[in-house]
Amino acid sequence: MQQQPDQCLTKAELSEFLLAEGQCGSAIEAHLSQCADCQRRLEHVTAANELWFETRDHLAGASLTDKTAPPDLETISQDYLKSILGPTDDPKMLGRIGLYEVLSVIGCGGTGMVLKALDTRLNRFVAIKILAPTFSTSGSARKRFEREGRAIAAVSHDHVVAVHNVDEYRGLPYIVMQYIAGRSLQQRVDNDGPLATQEVVRISMQIADALSCAHEQGIIHRDVKPSNILLENGVERVRVSDFGLAQVADDVSMTRSGIIAGTPQYMSPEQSRGEPLDGRSDLFSLGSVMYAMCTGHPPFRAGTTLGVIQRISSTDPRPIRQINSDIPEWLARFVHRLLEKNPADRFDSAREVRNYLSNELAYQQHPASLKVPHRPWMMSTYSSLRWPLIAIGATLLTVAVVLGTFFVVRRPGASTTPQSAANAQRESVSQSAVSETNEGEHPPGSAPATIALQASDPHGDTLGPDRSTSRLSHAPAIKPFPLWRNSASGTVYARAVWNDGSSARTSSDVVRFDPNTGRWQPLIGWATHPCLSHSGKYLSFRGTHPESHLSGTWACDWKGENLWRVSTVAGPMAWQPQGNQLIINDRYFELQDGQWKTPEKLANRVAGGSEPALDSTDSEAGSQERSLWRVSDGHVTDCSSDGTWFLRSWNRFGSASRHRITLSRGIEGERDLLHEGEGTVANVRLSPNAEQAAFILNDGHHASLRLLDRTSKQSRVLHSTASDLSAHPTCFSWSPDSKQILVGLVDWVSEAAGLESRAAPFLAPIPEANARLVIYEIDLEESSPLIVPGIEFLGLESFNWVADPQTK
Amino acid sequence: MVGLPDTQQDLLDRLREIDSDTAWETFLSIYKPAIFRFAKSRGLQDADASDVTQQVLIAVHNSILDWDNGREKGSFRGWLFRVTRNLAAKALRDKRKHQRPTELADVSLDIEQQDEGTSSALLLEYRRGLFQWAASVVKAQIEPRTWQAFWRTGIEGKRPAEVAHDLQMSVGAVYAAKCRVMARMKEVVGRLSDSDIPVDR
What we know:
The structure holds two protein chains of two kinds.
Chain A: H1 11-19, H2 26-34, H3 36-46, H4 49-59, H5 73-84, E1 95-97, E2 100-108, E3 112-119, E4 124-131, H6 133-136, H7 139-153, E5 163-169, E6 172-178, E7 182-184, H8 185-192, H9 197-216, E8 229-232, E9 238-240, H10 245-257, H11 269-272, H12 279-295, H13 305-314, H14 320-323, H15 329-338, H16 350-365, H17 382-409, H18 421-425, H19 429-438, E10 477-486, E11 491-499, E12 506-514, E13 519-524, E14 528-532, E15 538-544, E16 551-557, E17 563-567, E18 573-575, E19 581-584, E20 587-592, E21 595-597, H20 616-619, H21 625-632, E22 635-639, E23 645-652, E24 658-665, E25 672-678, E26 680-686, E27 692-698, E28 703-709, E29 715-720, E30 728-734, E31 740-751, E32 754-765, E33 774-775
Antiparallel strand pairs in A: 1-2, 2-3, 3-4, 4-6, 5-6, 7-8, 8-9, 10-11, 11-12, 12-13, 14-15, 15-16, 16-17, 18-19, 19-20, 20-21, 22-23, 23-24, 24-25, 26-27, 27-28, 28-29, 30-31, 31-32, 32-33
Chain B: H1 8-16, H2 21-41, H3 46-63, H4 75-96, H5 115-141, H6 144-155, H7 160-167, H8 171-192
Helix pairs in contact in B: 1-2, 2-3, 2-5, 3-4, 5-8, 6-7, 6-8, 7-8
């Protein structure tokens, strides 16, 4: 290499120098030592300034501690702010937009940011809304933002947040509004819960007043929701903000992603379908806001945006008085009238709503001197005729609950005299356990699916501290629920949820009921996907060992005394009938002389057999096909107890999700396609008699529990979120006689403040065997808010085996 | 550079392999601190943040086998971010059940919990994890003195002349070391950052 130390280097030479190793560049180094220009250019060739800065930011301080807190959100948004704001002379201010000195950030939303600022000319505080840069880059959105802003500025009303100005600063459009000191209705409901009737009427009347004024000027709000309703400090006067702004955001976000931005919980059905709107859409949203004031939560809730939208268009909300009986009948019906799906079935105008509410408010305040206001919405109409039906439905459900409780606790072989539900609830863990051990007297093979356990009594037996190897020993109250029962030993395995009381942390663990001592003992405190061998001697599960941090698939014996790490892979697993063979991720492992080994003859065998035809989207994968193939091969999820049948499932996640379930006779047998379709499946399990399989299908909108017949290959829905608003099936287990399935349901209900969830176990008998559906609900504090492949529910607090209703 | 995954996709593929401990280690060294710091930044205590981290990692570990290559690029990370956000939010909610929500004095307009903010915070933590992992990889491959020259000038911002004196190198050699290390950092980071998530906030 020809060195030219006295001359500056070209870009190509610098690049070459960067890649060179060793001392060959010493002449260049000599030049670099003197030439500041080349120093700078070398740095520039190496990496852009941004990358140097980013590297420094990320690495600086890294050697000091691993726990450096990153800049919080406020810092980030302030950094961002500084980049868009103009400089200010006042050190107390963040920056400047036009004539306004910015003091602080009030809030950030999906479409923009709201700032508190000082209007220097008029010396008053204002709120400034800036459109997020993603929106402001679209020219049409900006034009619209300005046009709407000017239209809104024309609305001047006591209950509307006034718009002072609409302008643009350095290409960013912004709206200057009246600054209101106070809190939003959302915050009030979050803090105080449901409001008193008179407050509901007062606030609703003022919102309707604001809406009627805007509607009469041709402006539809489009985003009436509690966080847009401000309550002024002190007097709590209502101020409605953000008129018409929702549409600006929607226009852009819809075209960008095809998904509706923000919370759709207060949207009207016609709005969620993207249809043209009139003022009656706002009335529906007002109805939703009133519903939230009456009950503490919006009328339509689901874990996903699409779920909410689906419920808005197709389901009736739960009657208000079922949730809050303090709300008078007239008000409940008023709200439900606003929530009619068809705009023509609602009130005609915001003015009409305002007038009715105004009369009601006056009557509330002076009930003695005024007569009961005219309430035309109480007349029999189509909608009100439905109420008795709902009431009948509710009664039936109550009956079912009582029956369900009865079935749950009735002991096997008990006399036919029905025990009362109340008595039944008092059945303790230990009593039930006695019936459990007695069950061993049934001849093998004929053991009915009888009661195994009633463990939901929170004051019942708790786990003893006698085996203090896990965190469980500190748990003040553990409510175990059985997963499997080993009928030979009388042992019950359960997953328990515990709470250490101090940090409200919850965890689920596998525990074991020992019939000899009559006590629950912790087995494994970190197990997921537990799976019991056919003999009941071993339990396999996935997890990460809390001390060694080794993860993978593990197994332990039935007492939890021996623990093995069978595989480094945490994969789908199925026990072989031999009792000491486990298939993990289609590979065999066998327990020999106390060690898990891959049997010689079966080493590394990925079962062959012919694969059902792949659909076209798969074969397009081209060069990736090989790796795809291995994945799309599916994994054994279950095998029959006689070792004949092997069930496999395969999932493709993502927007075009698909699943496939196959069955083969023997692990290498030809795979017969049992089921294929959209969505992903989980918990694919054969019935003990191997005639049927059950699985949970999630198609992105609903989760359903499905039954699949081995011979006819027909599948049917046993339970779906579409048919029951309350819950998602998340797990299940077959009864030993293959006639029943016990299902765990978790409800993912999203709240503006977060997620609330309920769970309920219920019994879904196989239709031919028994047509009854017994459901009962338990309100739970804890539940996992995730719908995530691989995570099982974390918070199902109790779960019962249920007696076979046919066993007399 | 044997043993390093070439791309994000390759890392995913390797994670699925039977003996994936190495890939898993790589995954852990990038994501574990990122998830932990993110959880802490949401206001969780160390113990709760560790729990969240553990839950996320278990979720990944349990799902990785079923993860399909057919998904669009980068969505694995999107999914992971979603899981992390949800679990952190859940932990925070659980914690807040025990304390009265404090009223914000200065709030008048809608403040919505938005995804954008948490996404960028999480992305920032992911990038930090990625850079720190890359630093550990590069550092192991080069002479300590070269690394020192890079670290003191590039990260600590010291003047090259001063560093050259301390390390008994020429100023040009300090520049060479600084830039060569940076070039390697860029290469290692670049391999794993191909995704649909923009690098810039």
